[in-house]
Amino acid sequence: MSREQRIRVDEILRQPDPDGPRSVEEIRAGFRELMARMIVPHDRIRTSPTTLGGRPALRVEPTAGTGPRPDGDSGSGSGSGSGSGTILYFHGGAWVFGSPETALTLTGNLVARTGLGAYSLDYRLAPEHPFPAAIEDTLSAYRALLERGEDPSDIVLAGDSAGGGLAVTTCLAARDAGLPQPAGILAFSPGTDATRTGESMDTKEGIDPIFSRAALEHTGALYLAGADPRHPLLSPAVHADLTGLPPMLIQVGANEMLLDDSTRLAARASAAGVDVILDVTADVPHVFQAFAGVLDEADEALDRAALFLRQRIRAGSATHRTAPATAGSTG
């Protein structure tokens, strides 16, 4: 990693502590301003507004010639349009802020690197719509893909931060509703512990250029609105039964206060028999992948994520072709 790149990213992310909690409007505006500085591969994708499961969504598709090469590596290939498979993406923002537009650097880079099309969902936000509104919306979006005829083996769920947590909890909600599981889960720095009991909450404070415990507890309270933080859909890293979930790739930075949300989720998933890859990158912050084109580690992590997504789609499709379908299978 270039030390100069790391310093530049830290300078972008570190902001003076406000005098007391910021209003929801201030938080949302500040996040939009920050994410507007990220690099989006506009020349390799096209976007259009749509709806999915009753909610607004952004359709992100690769342009002609974008996607994996015939050898399976990511990059510009000879194909055209989106490949066979769908990324259902959930943006980050502590369940309080963010949108498909603020996450476009992430969805755009995944689409450009894989050749897969994506839907980025504009799920309802707290405090106007606290828990469990977001999960109701993400589950409805996944159900809508299935009802329109998409095979679950051709769908991967992905997200960053709060959206990474939603990728996991949507699979839990789908399992409990008797729906088949998607081909895989990709989670960038997922928020998976509303109890805030991870050791990294203390050991990484000050090192993390984005979060403080006070800020996390402020936005967390807006989302919980009195709900028990030990609910499995709020703290799957410590309180959920993860049995039956699809293979997952978890990417996280070592400088994050939420590091243990990822490490404990990976350990719990592995103990439940889930195939899981825990990908920890040293000396980088929360959702560092958003700094594609600025931070070498961001581009390298996105390449690994794209490879995982393509492998999961290929593996799921191959299984679907060779094995007889079973009614009511949970995948």
What brief labels describe this structure?
single chain, 331 residues, alpha/beta, Rossmann fold, 10 helices, 8 strands, 15% strand
Mean pLDDT: 91
Count of helix runs? 10
The strand count comes to 8
Strand content: 5-15%
CATH architecture, by name, is 3-Layer(aba) Sandwich
Order of helices and strands: HHEEEHEHEHEHHHEHEH
CATH topology: Rossmann fold
- Read across the widest sheet, the strand sequence of neighbours is 1-2-4-3-5-6-7-8
* Gyration radius, in Å: 18 Å
Structural class by SSE content: alpha/beta
- The shape is globular
What would you say this structure looks like, in words?
With 331 residues, this protein is of the alpha/beta class. It has a single domain, classed as Rossmann fold (3-Layer(aba) Sandwich). It contains 10 helices and 8 strands. The chain has an 8-stranded mixed beta sheet, sandwiched between helices. Strand 5, helix 5 and strand 6 form a beta-alpha-beta unit. The protein starts with a helix and ends in a 9-residue tail after the last helix. The C terminus is likely disordered.
